[in-house]
């Protein structure tokens, strides 16, 4: 990477971008039948499943889809839950993502996305990284999109690419909808 003339931010020239595409495969469309969404990642993602602790000793299925390129990462997580038993507190969710990555919430604001209440947030202090994210509840599922990088500008750019390409699909949620190991516990409250 080359240093910009006016600042210390890295600049990726078209030649470097082309070389990175050759090495990492370039933008990679990804569709999850279980997660009911499509998104474009910067390279082929890995998918992991697991469980997240919930209220009253419950466990919830969690899925993490992530790509890592050098010192950046792009991720989408989702958790399926029973809305008759659990209400997600988005502010608590953001706080628990910060705790899960060893950082603190630098900024969190309400936005409307996918026809629902969502949170845009920035987490600082996660080692040398900054995490920019967006989390939203859609029906019986909570999605969290994350851009992770060493600068907020780069993390924001990664997150914006995920947001711009994220599309919900009409496929039904199966009984075995994926449960993936997330990097952070999500905020839950009992109804």
Could you characterize what this model shows?
- The protein is of the alpha+beta class.
- Helix content is 19%, strand content 47%.
- It has a seven-stranded antiparallel β-sheet with strand order 5-6-7-12-11-10-9.
- It starts with a strand and ends with a strand.
- 33% of the residues are buried.
- The N terminus and C terminus are likely disordered.
The secondary-structure class comes to alpha+beta
The SSE order reads EEHEEEEEEHEEEEHEE
Strand percent estimate: over 45%
Largest sheet: 7 strands, antiparallel
Distance between the termini: 50 Å
What's the helical proportion of residues? 10-25%
Radius of gyration: 17 Å
Keywords:
191 residues, alpha+beta, 7-stranded antiparallel sheet, 3-stranded antiparallel sheet, 3 helices, 19% helix, globular, disordered C terminus
Question: Outline of this structure?
Answer:
The chain is an alpha+beta fold. The protein has helices spanning 14-24, 90-100, 152-165; strands at residues 2-3, 10-11, 28-32, 37-41, 46-53, 59-69, 72-80, 86-88, 104-113, 116-126, 129-138, 141-149, 167-168, 188-190.
Q: How is the topology of this model organized?
A:
Blueprint: E1 2-3, E2 10-11, H1 14-24, E3 28-32, E4 37-41, E5 46-53, E6 59-69, E7 72-80, E8 86-88, H2 90-100, E9 104-113, E10 116-126, E11 129-138, E12 141-149, H3 152-165, E13 167-168, E14 188-190
Antiparallel strand pairs: 1-2, 3-4, 4-13, 5-6, 6-7, 7-12, 8-14, 9-10, 10-11, 11-12
